[in-house]
C-alpha cells in the first residue's frame, strides 16, 4: 500500500521524466553526452529502413523522428538537464547533418511584379467594373423609354 509521501514521489518522478522539470541535483552533461548517442543510433537504424532518396520527405520517417526527439528529451531529463539545451541541440544538429544535409528548403521568395505589369493588373479590372456599372445604369434608364 502506497503512503501519501510515496505517491507524491512517484508523481514527482513521473513529471520529471515527462520534461516538466529536471530532477534536483543539477545537470550531468557528461552523462547526457554519453546517453544521447543511443538515441542517434536507434534513429540511424530506423532510417536505414527508409530509402535514401526519401530522406528529405518528412512524411516518410516522421514516426522515427518523433521517437528520436522523445528519446533525446527523456535522456536529457533523466540526467537532470533541461531540454532543449545547447549540448542536446548540438547533438541533434549533428544527426541532421548526417541525414539531411542534401535536403534543400524549397521556399520561394515572392516579389511584386514590376510596376509596368502591376498597374495594368489593378487598373483594368477597376475601370471595367466602373464601365459595366455605367452601362447597366444607362441601359436601365433607356429600357423604360423603349417599352
UniProtKB/TrEMBL annotation:
Q: Which PANTHER family match?
A: RECEPTOR ACTIVITY MODIFYING PROTEIN RAMP, RECEPTOR ACTIVITY-MODIFYING PROTEIN 3
For this UniProt record, the keywords arranged alphabetically read as follows: Cell membrane, Disulfide bond, Glycoprotein, Membrane, Receptor, Signal, Transmembrane, Transmembrane helix, Transport
Q: This protein is called what? A: Receptor activity-modifying protein 3
Subcellular location, principal: membrane
Which Gene Ontology CC terms are recorded? cell surface; plasma membrane; receptor complex
Q: Is the keyword Membrane assigned to this protein?
A: yes
Superkingdom, according to UniProt? Eukaryota
Its GO biological process annotations read: calcium ion transport; cellular response to hormone stimulus; G protein-coupled receptor signaling pathway; intracellular protein transport; protein localization to plasma membrane; receptor internalization; regulation of G protein-coupled receptor signaling pathway
Q: Where is the signal peptide?
A: 1-19
